[in-house]
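Justification of computing resources. Each target in the renewal requires a structure prediction run like the one illustrated here; the chain below, 207 residues long, is used simply to show the kind of job we budget for.
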Amino acid sequence: MAEAPDFAQTRVLLDAKFDRLRVRDRTLLQSIVAFDVFVGPQLLAVFLGLSPAAISTSLSKLKRTGLIRATPEGEVGISYRVLRDILPQSWRHPGPLEAVRMAALLIDNGDWYAIARRAELCVLAGHLEEAVGEFERAGIEAQHGGHLKDAARIFAVAVKTAKAAINDENYVRDQSSDEDWLERAAARCRSRAKTVRLKIQRASSAV
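Resulting C-alpha cells:
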C-alpha cells in the first residue's frame, strides 16, 4: 500500500532531523523510543554508559528538535506515538535480554509505578508468570497509596496476563493443588479490581 503524501513527507522530515543529530543523540533517541515509559534519564545513563550531564545535554537538544517531550510524571516521553508507523520497527521495544536487564535495575524500587513497569518488562521478556505476580503487587501498592483508578487498571492487566500465560502452549499447570496458581492469581486480581471499582463508585457518588 502506497503511503499518503503527507505521511511520506513526515518521514522525510524526520529522517532529515535524525541525520543532523550527533551519534550520541541518535543513540539516546533510539533508546527512548525503544524503552519509552519504562525508564527515565537516570536509568538511560546507566543503560548507555553515559554521564548524567551528557544525557541532560542530549535531552535538551532532542527537546529543541521537537522529537521528545517530558511526561507529567517526569519520565522521558517521545512524540513517536504520533509517528509510530513511520519509525523503524526495531526501535520500538527492547529485546528479551534487554528487558530482563532493565527489570533487574528496577528490582529494589518499591514504588507501585516502578513495579508495574517491571511487570511490563517481564511481559516483554516472555516471563508471564512473574509478570502476574508483579502486576498484582503493583496494584496492591497503588491501592494502598490511594491510586484507585491505577490499581483497578493494573489488576485488570494482571488478569489478562494470567490468561495469556495459562493459554501459552509451553505453560505447565500447577499440579500441587486442586487449583492452578495462575488461576488463583487471576481470581484474586479479578476480585481486587471489583473491590477497587466499587470504592471508586462510592467515592464518586458521595461527591
